[in-house]
Amino acid sequence: MTLIVGIVCSDGVVMASDSAATLAAGAAPTVGQQPMTKIHKIGEDMLYASSGAVGISQLIRDSLGKLVAVKGHHKGQSSAEAMSLVASKIADVVKPLFASASAAAALVGQQTAGITVICKSLVAFPYKGQARLFQFDHAGAPEEATNELPFVSLGSGQPLADPFLALMKRVLWSGSPPTVAEGRFAAAWTIVHVAKTNYAGVALPLQMATLSSNGQIELAADPEEHYEAVHAAEESLRRHVRPGAATEDEPPKPPAAPTVNA
Questions:
Q1: Which CATH number do you get for residue 19?
Q2: Residue 143 CB coordination number (10 Å)
Q3: Other CB atoms within 10 A of residue 33 CB
Q4: Global pTM?
């Protein structure tokens, strides 16, 4: 199970994820919440993350690595053309596997056949001085994140993540896109919120990476600072709404002793 979050910012792109993977025999889960790396650096200036079948994501990552090696992702005349080049590489990987799964469906069932070839991808790379964020569906159909639709979430945690991200967009950055610092905070809070809700197998630790407009990638080594920022925000909200209430880390205050009337 997975939650991937991507946010396009005024000065870069933020990508974050949980760390839980689920092993399965066909469509039946066997072992849940096995830790794995979900955000990958490809070449010098591409970030990649995915939800769904791990094997397909490995093949897609390898194909994109070959594209990046010859700087193919920078050859389009527009960001739409660059997006199309990446989409075609993903489609080249998945189409023959879709055909094989379709042929096997009559024998093993549609769900069992399909679950091993279904994978959604999130890709970020710089194009003409601006960090770009793209999502690609199971067949490689693309969509670029924009200032109007700046966030993307993928995976089993998406039903909880999307409304939470929409709330933050409305409250925190409705008039202008977030900065990378604000994007980190929003992405971290979303992952932590969904993980603490224990929704759809999403689990910490948090993984995070940023891509700057000039193509520099930073992989977060320690999520602790992001946990602290989220905790501080939650405590501030709690104090504002319920002054004097116990914090998450404090036991509730005992009730006052009853007054004894003489």
A1: 3.60.20.10
A2: 14
A3: 15
A4: 0.90
